[in-house]
Amino acid sequence: MSAPSAAPARKTIKKAAKKVAKGARKVSGKKPDWILGPIPEDILSPANFRPEPKTPEAPSVCDTTRLKHVIANPALYEVAATVFPPKTRKGPGRPAHYPAYIYLIYLAAISIYDSSRHTQSTFYEPDNWKIIRTGIRRFLGDEAADALPENGPSLYQWNDFYRKKFRPSIHEFRKESRDAWIRQAIAHGLLSEERRRGDRLRPHRSQTINGDGTVVRPPSDQTEEFTDDEKTGERRRHRVDHDAGIQMEGGDRAVYGKKIVSFSVRQEAKCHSRFILNVDSARHRPPEEDPERDEEASVALRLAHEILDRAPGLLAASFDTAWRGKHRAPLIRRGLIVFTRQHDGIKPHPLTKYKCKCKNDCECQYKKCTHDVYAAAGRSCERQITVEGKTMYNPLPVRELIAREGKTDWRFYHRVEIPCRNGPHAELIPVYETQEDSAIDPRTKRKRFNRTEHLRQIPPGTHHGDRLLGFREDSESSNSSLDYSHRDKRVPMYGAEGALLGYLGYAWANNSVALATASSP
C-alpha cells in the first residue's frame, strides 16, 4: 500500500514560515494608546555624553592564518586531553590512528573551510598537513609531531570520531570549552576583577557580556522522510533533521533550523578581539517533546550565571527581548546591570502617588500637590493629561543610580526628581525586585508586582541605554559570521547536538584568532 503523497519540503517550509511571520506581525503591530514625553537631560542622558569610539574596519584574515591560530591555541590541547584522555598501552582496543586534538583542530577548521569534506581535502594535501605538523612540533614537541601519520584524517575517520566520541561527550566538551574560554578572556584583560574598568552607569565594553540567539540551519530543508514525485510516481527517501523547526529570527523573519544561544565579550575599538564565552542549544518545541532542553530565555539566563560564577569582574549583561522580568531579576540580585529593550505590549503601571505639603512659611497659593508616578517605557514617569485629553507619561529625571550590596544580594535604586510648581521633590524608586513585589497576592495567586519587567536600571531610549543596545547589536555579527563560515549558510551536522558541536568548533576558531590578536603588541 503506497503512502499518501507529500508536498515538497521547500513549499511546506515557506508556507509554515509565512503563517508564523504573520502571527508575529499581529502581536507586535499594536500601537500604545498613550504618548511618552520628552527624554530629560539627566545622568542617563547627560549633556556631555561621549559616544563609543568607532572600531576601525577589520582586516581580513586568510584561511591559512586562521588555521595557524587554531593550532597555536594551548587551551585546545588541554581540553582535548581532559575530555578525550589518551588510551594507555595496557588498555583494551588498538590505539587511535590520530590523537584527539587532531579531531578538535578538524572541528574548528570546518568553519574555516566551510564543510567537513573541504576540510578533509585540505588536511590531506601535504603542504597543509605540514603546517599542522610544524605547529604541533612547536607546541607539543618532536615526539608528538613525529608520531602523526603522513596525511590528515579521512572523512570516514572524522565521521567515526564524531559519532563515537564527540556526540556522547558533547556536554562535557561544552563545559570544558567554556571554562577554557573564560580563563583566556580574563588573562587578557576582559572581565577582570583586578583591572575593572568603567562603572555601573557606563560599564566598559570589556566588562559587558552580550548574548544573542540564532537559528542554525540544518544541511537539508526536508521535513518528510519519504516523498512521492507527482509526475513520475517515484518514491524518494530523504534525511530529515528531527530537531529542526520553524523559528522566528530578528523579530519577523521565519527560519527553519535549531536554536543556539551564546554570550561573548570584546575589547573596545579593537578588531578581532571578541571572545565567545558560553554557548548551548535551546528548545523551541513543547516541553513534552523536548524535555532535555530549556527555552531560549532560560538557557541564556543559565549561561549568564555560569559566566558570572567564573568571572566575578563582570559588570553588565545585555540580551534581546526574550528576557523578561523574571529572567532579569536573579542577575540584578547578583549585582549586574542587565539591559534589554522594552517588550512590546507592556502597559504603564502605577508605582506611587507622591503627596507633599508646602512649608508653613510658603507664600504660594497651593497648600499641597499630588503627583501620580507610573512605570512606563522602562522608567519612572509622571502621568499627566494633555489639552487634547490624551494620557502622557513624562519621564522623570534620574539624578543618581544607587547600588547597595547587602548580605545576600544587591539592591538598585533611582533617585528621581519630580518637577513641581512648589519646587522639585526627590523620590527613591527601587529598580530591583523587592520582597513586597515578590509576595504572592492571595487574590490573583501571582506576584504583586513584576517590577523588573516594568523598570530598567538603564532604560532604553537614553544615551547610556542606546550605548548598551549598540553592544548587543554588534554581537549579532558573530552569528552572521557563523552563517557565512559554512557552505550555503548551513552547519553540516544533523540534530541539536550536531548544531551545538558545529558552533563550538566555530567558537574555537573565532577565539583562537582573538587570542592571537590579544597576544600581539
Unreliable stretches covering 5 or more consecutive residues? 1-7
Radius of gyration: 27 Å
**N-to-C terminal Cα separation, in Å?**
71 Å
Mean pLDDT level: 89
- Tell me the β content: 15-25%
Provide the structure class.
alpha+beta
What fraction, in percent, of the residue positions are helical? Answer: 25-40%
* Tally of domains: 3
Report the sheet with the most strands, covering strand number, pairing sense and barrel closure: 6 strands, mixed
Number of strands: 16
Q: What sort of overall outline do the alpha carbons produce when their principal axes are compared?
A: elongated
Number of helices: 15
Description:
The protein is of the alpha+beta class and about 525 residues long. The chain folds into 3 domains: about 10-30 and about 170-340 and about 460-520, no CATH class; about 65-165, no CATH class; about 350-455, no CATH class. It has 15 helices and 16 strands. It has helices at about 10-30, 65-70, 75-85, 100-115, 115-125, 125-140, 140-145, 155-165, 170-185, 295-310, 325-335, 435-440, 450-455, 465-485, 495-520, and strands at about 35, 210-215, 225-230, 235, 245-250, 255-265, 275-280, 315-320, 335-340, 350-355, 370-375, 380-385, 390-395, 400-405, 410-420, 425-430. Strand 12 and strand 13 (about 390-395) form a beta hairpin. Helix 2 (about 65-70) crosses helix 15 and helix 4 (about 100-115) crosses helix 15. The N and C termini lie far apart (about 70 Å). Residues about 1-5 have low confidence and may be disordered.
